[in-house]
């Protein structure tokens, strides 16, 4: 059985006393609803937005604007540029296009950085899912362990109650001393306390898993009583060096550190780009309109368009110098139509702008030095991530070996304690041993069952941890 399952998880509101959550449902529900995972998904969306913004920086900018104003009093007419004391309406419109021709490759590097940042966010999301899935599995197996222990205590207590009845009959018949009956009753009281403690452990572990799944109905939350078997994918039989190598290739911890190093390298390239000149191009178109009338000069009399005026005197002769000048009059002219003014008053501007950095207070140099320091820091972090991963794999590998030995030993111990218990029970039933010795044998048998339960589920969990390190996906883990 693996984590993957086909049917959809019902909403939290459908949780009822009849609902028994399987391990697959718990893991999928956690992956769909866990707050930390949702935050990591938001980080991934933010990385997408950063990538889109970086891509947009490589494209031309296009902006349009318009304005309308009404002026009263003395002001300059935007069309005639004459100072006028009046009230008039004016409108302007413009379109601007800009393009960053060269900026030291910084925008291009920013796009590359945004792509790397998105990959790093994906790895962080994968790691978060791995961690949450493993935490859910651990909590789930803990509930199963506590339930198995509770079942053991109840079953053994039923045997004790039967022994009380049997002992009571033997005491009443004078075949056993009364002390044996008191001894078994004391054992029953101890077992009742153990049952209460086991019930509390089940409740606490259920609440813990419910909180991890963000389910508020603690009282009605429960899991299916599954009996998992130990399924070993033979990963534990592989050399630990092979597991470490696979972990370095597949685990998100190392991948995240590698991407952080790549981000630091891109930051250095971006910082160095500030040393280079920048070239930008622009183009703009604008026009204007006003509804204000203006003064204009025209020929006063078409029949007599000119007149003779003296403009000087010839020195020596005293002869006048004359010329013909037009006879003009000033008239008030109404505003031109709106469409006509848009064409008459429009204009364009275009050009290039070069900016050469010469001295900026060492800001560029300091940014470059900080970026170089961050690269060295990221290299150390990558080395540390590999060392931590290697240490974690070694620890997981040793834990599997140890838990396997503990599980095998627990099975052997249970077989021996079961035989000893059956022998003690037979002897007690025929009066060859006292209640105290029988109780001790039964206690050792109970403890052996509990130890086996804990060893079994601990071994299962340790195996799954090692398989995750080897690169098996959480939803593909078999239990």
From TrEMBL:
One Pfam family this sequence matches: OEP
Protein name listed in UniProt: RND efflux system, outer membrane lipoprotein CmeC
Coiled coil regions, renumbered to chain: 247-274
Keyword Membrane listed: yes
Intracellular or extracellular location(s): Cell outer membrane
Any Gene Ontology CC annotation: efflux pump complex
Keywords, sorted A to Z: Cell outer membrane, Coiled coil, Lipoprotein, Membrane, Transmembrane, Transmembrane beta strand, Transport
Similarity comment text for this entry: Belongs to the outer membrane factor (OMF) (TC 1.B.17) family.
UniProt-recorded Gene Ontology molecular function terms: efflux transmembrane transporter activity; porin activity
Primary location: membrane
């Amino acid at each position: 059985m693996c984590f993957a399952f086909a049917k959809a998880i019902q909403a939290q509101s459908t949780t009822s006393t009849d609902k028994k959550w399987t391990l697959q449902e718990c893991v999928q529900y956690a992956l769909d609803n866990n707050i930390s995972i949702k935050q990591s998904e938001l980080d991934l969306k933010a990385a997408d937005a950063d990538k889109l913004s970086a891509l947009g920086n490589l494209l031309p900018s296009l902006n349009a604007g318009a304005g309308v104003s009404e002026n009263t009093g003395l002001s300059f007419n935007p069309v005639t540029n004459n100072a006028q004391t009046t009230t008039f309406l004016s409108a302007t419109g413009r379109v601007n296009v800009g393009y960053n021709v060269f900026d030291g490759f910084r925008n291009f590097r920013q796009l590359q950085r945004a792509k790397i940042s998105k990959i790093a966010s994906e790895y962080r999301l994968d790691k978060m899912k791995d961690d949450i899935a493993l935490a859910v599995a651990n909590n789930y197996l803990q509930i199963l362990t506590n339930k198995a222990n509770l079942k053991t205590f109840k079953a053994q207590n039923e045997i004790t109650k039967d022994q009380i009845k049997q002992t009571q009959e033997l005491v009443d018949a004078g075949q056993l001393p009364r002390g044996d009956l008191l001894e078994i009753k004391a054992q029953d009281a101890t077992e009742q306390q153990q049952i209460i403690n086991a019930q509390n452990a089940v409740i606490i572990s259920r609440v813990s898993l419910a909180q991890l799944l963000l389910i508020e109905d603690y009282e009605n939350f429960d899991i299916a009583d599954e009996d998992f078997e130990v399924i070993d994918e033979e990963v534990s039989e592989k050399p630990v060096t092979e597991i470490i190598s696979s972990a370095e290739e597949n685990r998100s911890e190392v991948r995240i550190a590698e991407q952080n190093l790549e981000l630091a390298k891109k930051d250095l390239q971006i910082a160095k780009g500030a040393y280079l000149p920048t070239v930008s191009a622009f183009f703009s178109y604008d026009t204007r309109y006003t509804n204000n009338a203006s003064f204009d000069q025209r020929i006063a009399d078409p029949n007599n368009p000119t007149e003779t005026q003296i403009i000087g005197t010839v020195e020596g002769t005293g002869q006048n110098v004359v010329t013909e000048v037009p006879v003009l009059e000033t008239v008030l002219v109404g505003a031109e139509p709106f469409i006509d003014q848009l064409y008459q008053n429009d204009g364009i501007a275009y050009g290039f702008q070069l900016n050469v950095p010469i001295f900026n207070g060492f800001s560029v140099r300091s940014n470059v030095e900080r970026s170089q320091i961050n690269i060295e820091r990221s290299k150390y972090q990558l080395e540390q991530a590999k060392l931590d991963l290697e240490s974690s794999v070694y620890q997981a590998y040793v834990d599997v070996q140890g838990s396997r030995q503990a599980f095998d030993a627990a099975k052997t111990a249970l077989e021996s304690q079961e035989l000893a218990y059956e022998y003690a029970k037979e002897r007690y039933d025929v009066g060859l041993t006292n209640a105290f010795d029988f109780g001790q044998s039964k206690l050792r048998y109970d403890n052996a069952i509990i130890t086996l339960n804990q060893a079994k589920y601990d071994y299962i969990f340790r195996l799954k941890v090692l398989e995750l390190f080897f690169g098996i996906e959480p939803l593909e883990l078999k239990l």
